[in-house]
Design goal:
The chain is of the alpha/beta class. It has one domain (about 30-55, about 75-235): Rossmann fold, CATH 3.40.50.300. The protein is about 30% helix and about 30% strand. The chain contains eight helices and ten strands. It has helices spanning about 45-50, 75-85, 100-105, 115-125, 140-155, 170-190, 200-205, 230-235; strands at about 1-15, 15-30, 35, 60-65, 65-70, 85-90, 160-165, 190-195, 210-215, 215-220. The strands form two sheets. Strands 6-7-8-3-9-10 form a six-stranded mixed sheet, sandwiched between helices. A four-stranded antiparallel sheet has the order 2-1-4-5, with helices on one face. β1 (about 1-15) and β2 (about 15-30) form a beta hairpin. The two termini are about 35 Å apart.
């Protein structure tokens, strides 16, 4: 589904060049759930942006479902981001004046928005938040706000979900609940899930851990039998 071949990404700031990705090659199969780990400045967020078609490689090839992304125009890239990829952010990015339902409806305001309210409510129900649809963000806990963020990413039924540090602002219990939802979406619905995280305990709940350092993949390891986040959350405190 996702294939990076010797991808580099160089940012130019005046006369200074910063190589955020240096010859990265990576393949992600349909239906995988993996995490990308690394310290700040390792290139993991840049790789997430490239995978999400938010940024283009400086060199190398990126193929998404067989299409070479670097050869696509802006309209086609926008269509891919709109239809195939859902994004979940650390800071939720919810509009405070809208209800949970209104926030989830937002992606449907553009293009074909038929049955908008029904589809948004169904997305909230997929993350166990249907009963909180009429509440505004200030009336929701951090974990509930992140569930709204996931529902908003799901409302167009993407095939790929990209989550950038989705537990970074959450307490232990809420963190495991969020990862549990992502595990269920991956396991039961076949959604491809890619999580960027700084936290080893969160990465350990995925099926594969890709570690980055200085713009390069330094380790790529499968996790044969990842634990269910719900069972971990019931028995363990999350390391801090």
């Amino acid at each position: 589904m996702i294939e990076l071949n010797n991808v580099t990404k160089v940012y130019r700031m005046g006369k200074v060049e910063v190589a955020a990705m240096q010859g990265v090659s990576l393949t992600i199969q349909k239906g995988e759930m993996l995490s990308i780990m690394g310290p700040s400045g390792s290139g993991k967020s840049t790789m997430m942006n490239v995978i999400g078609c938010l940024d283009m490689p400086t060199s190398g090839r990126y193929l998404l479902e067989g299409q070479e992304v670097g050869q696509l125009g802006d309209d086609k890239l926008a269509e891919i981001r709109n239809r195939k990829i859902g994004f979940v952010f650390q800071t939720y990015n919810l509009l405070p004046r809208l209800t949970a339902l209104g926030n989830v409806e937002l992606p449907l305001l553009y293009g074909n928005g038929r049955n908008r309210r029904k589809r948004a409510l169904e997305a909230l129900e997929r993350v166990g938040l249907g009963q909180r649809a009429r509440h505004r963000p200030t009336e929701l806990s951090g974990g509930e706000q992140q569930r709204v963020g996931i529902a908003r990413a799901l409302v167009k039924n993407p095939s790929i979900l990209l989550a950038d540090e989705p537990t970074g602002n959450l307490d232990s219990r809420s963190s495991y609940e969020i990862i549990g939802i992502l595990q269920r979406l991956n396991r039961e619905e076949g959604l491809t899930v890619v999580i960027v995280t700084l936290e080893a305990d969160i990465a350990g709940l995925t099926r594969r851990v890709v570690s980055m350092l200085d713009g390069q993949v330094v380790k790529d390891e499968p996790i044969i039998e990842p634990r269910h986040a719900s069972s971990v959350g019931e028995t363990e405190e999350r390391p801090r």
